[in-house]
Amino acid sequence: MKLRSYLADFVALLFPELCHACGQSLVAHEDLICTDCLYNLPYTNFHQQPDNIVARQFWGKVKLNGAYALFYFTKGGKVQQLIHQLKYNNAPMVGNKLGHIAGAQLMKSEHLNMFDAVIPVPLHKSRLRKRGYNQSACFAEGLAEALNTAVVINNLIRTKATATQTHKSRFDRAVNMQDVFTVADIKALADKHVLLVDDVVTTGSTLEACAQALLAVPGLKLSIATIAYAE
């Protein structure tokens, strides 16, 4: 056992594991994100605020039971780095870890802790093939495990390969997302409380389009959770 420990320490010295938020070397018992970042990332605590800014963004547009984001997003900040690692550097495990962190928060919430299913915003099959995984699904898996519920991957379907939302105006984002999503099996979601999840919410146009498709299901109640909120 000692030899194995020495070998592990030697390998770690040559090829140190780095924090996905700050890039510093991880030490023993740290996993993916260093302790300093875990304590000091910009948490929103929206799980304690039913009328938080994400929830207000959807008022008058779609009926939600609740809305939540784990972090505030700032350009060039550590949260942006985490999401970049998740989406573009083949680090799906970061999404899973953030889902566990978010799930632990939601378990403490009085209005966002009981769900029948967690559904990620889907990627179009062409983008999924290119990336190899859906970053929102990675987050959803961690959330569902922490909340002791199921992930439903293939029921909410993206039918069109839309252009990226980056650099689009609020109006253009809404137009870009019209009639993009559909529900494959309506009966499977009838009378369920669903948690819809995505990586970042900005204008909310993608989540709103998903919500409209899901809320057409009879008796369905809907809440939203994201990794980050960007103004």
TrEMBL record:
Pfam families: Pribosyltran (PF00156). Gene3D superfamilies: 3.40.50.2020. Signal peptide: none annotated. Belongs to the ComF/GntX family. Residues 139-228 form the Phosphoribosyltransferase domain. This is ComF family protein. InterPro entries: ComF/GntX_DNA_util-trans, PRTase-like, PRTase_dom. It comes from the Bacteria. SUPFAM superfamilies: PRTase-like.
